[in-house]
Amino acid sequence: MKADYSTKHPAEQTSPRSRLGWSADIAAIVQLENESGLCHQARLIWDYHTTHDAQTGLPNLDYLLEKMDAALAHTPACSLLYLDVANIDAIGEYHGIAGALHALRAVAEKILNCMRPEDVAARIHGGAFLALIVEQDPSALAQRLKQEICASIAWQTDILHVSVAIGIVRGSHFQGNAEAMIRAGYVAAQSSMAQQSNNGICHFTEAQGKQLHRQYQLVSRLHTALEEGSLSLHFQAKVRADDGVLVGAEALLRWNDSQLGPVSPAEFIPVAERCGLITAISAWLMQQAMSELKIWQQAGLDIKMAINLTAKDLLCETLLADIQAALRKSGISADKLTIELTESSVALHPQLAAQQLQALRARGISTELDDFGTGFSSFSHLRKFPIDTLKIDQSFIVDIALSAEARAIVQSIVTLGKTLNMSIVAEGVETLNQACLLRELGVDILQGYFFNKPACSVEFVEQINSWLPLKTQLFLQTASERCPTETH
């Protein structure tokens, strides 16, 4: 016997209705023949409400999961398409709730029009839709869905437009695990956004499967990282270029998990942002860095501390209050703190960023634009932000001794920063030659492995008392002996 994978609810089978119905569906259900009495009718109405999406009339996630379990049990030849429809929120902001609902319902109608009666379409949240198909080419359906969904939508006197990213997952790869299929579909849809060459459609691959497993491992372990104390800070020196004096340190987050081992910040920070843990982690980082700085001050080391914040931190309404609380608790004055933000985080929400940066400056906290040159800043854009320091990305430093182009880029950034009354920091300084060249180009502060490798607080203090003076002495002696013409 052929399994039933259709979207139809039992209540729908006794009353004709359109494939997309709204309140009229309920009225139709009430008109059922009174074979089992009003209780039976009420049960059908209740079942319909609990298994269908109120906005579009499509089945919801619970209903889809039931159908997926049945499909996966009967045949491996089923596929799932995850459709991530974009621009619904923007339509709502401009046209109101009515416009957004119209767009959602139009998308739902288009999805159904592309599918067979025995297939299942569902809306799970926001602009996320799912399509479960059996014994059908998912790639061909994905192409048809993309073409239909991206077609314009008439709304009153306007035309609405949405876009869609589609992830394709084959059931044979998931051994009956419906929820894992949906997660895989989401990953594939996100990959399709990042890969511009695939027309917004992406098949879930084995490599993505490994990546997905790794992501869930990271999320699980991050939840216990603060409790277990597996997060720590390492510190890297900031040295003034003209006299070699230590003027600051950057606090760098490290994670050495008991199960996963050392995990790079480049890997776990984005995960922490996505799973909502970044605010707690940043708060811990801030308090820990301030506490270490207080210990250093008590030992006679009077320098500034730089900490990195993310785009999520910048959006946090309590950011200023959290920073001030950390300063009060540690007894550190505001002028000893520098907040580092990346170009991309500032460019993501420029108006809010400008407000937050201005508020930080008003409280005596300096700000530094990290990884400068890799993002989106222009002169006209940059001058709107109250930034105190530009940090040149290390990608421009690595070839500075060999490439005239790299030196020209650094020189242009220095000129830009000086024009805007900003200090210039160069990170990733790994050789004596690089340090000397950067000094000659007008860079104010130098940071990198040439001066010290990032280390825990105890080792950092040992470095600046022993290793760092030797390095700065060599640097200053070499720099004084060099002629500016040697940079060419």
Explain how this protein is built.
It comes from Aquitalea palustris. Residues 215-468 form the EAL domain. Residues 76-206 form the GGDEF domain. This is GGDEF domain-containing protein. With 488 residues, the protein is an alpha/beta fold. The chain has two domains: 53-204, Reverse transcriptase/Diguanylate cyclase domain (Alpha-Beta Plaits); 221-480, TIM Barrel (Alpha-Beta Barrel), CATH 3.20.20. Helices cover 48% and strands 19% of the residues. The chain is built from 18 helices and 16 strands. The strands form three sheets. Strands 8-9-11-12-13-14-15-16 form an eight-stranded mixed β-barrel, surrounded by six helices. Strands 2-3-1-6-7 form a five-stranded mixed beta sheet, sandwiched between helices. It has a two-stranded antiparallel sheet with strand order 4-5. Helix 9 runs parallel beside helix 11 (319-330) and helix 16 (432-440) packs across helix 18 (467-481). The radius of gyration is 29 Å and the shape is elongated.
Per DSSP E runs of 2 or more residues, the count of β-strands stands at 16
**Mean pLDDT over the residues:** 86
Rg measurement, Å: 29 Å
Tally of helical runs: 18
**Proportion of helical residues:** 40-55%
Low-confidence residue ranges: 1-24
Structural class: alpha/beta
- State the CATH class of the largest domain: Alpha Beta
Percentage of residues in DSSP E strands: 15-25%
The dominant shape is elongated
| Total domain units | 2
CATH homologous superfamily (4th level) name of the largest domain: EAL domain
Give the neighbour order of strands across the main sheet: 8-9-11-12-13-14-15-16
Largest sheet: 8 strands, mixed, barrel
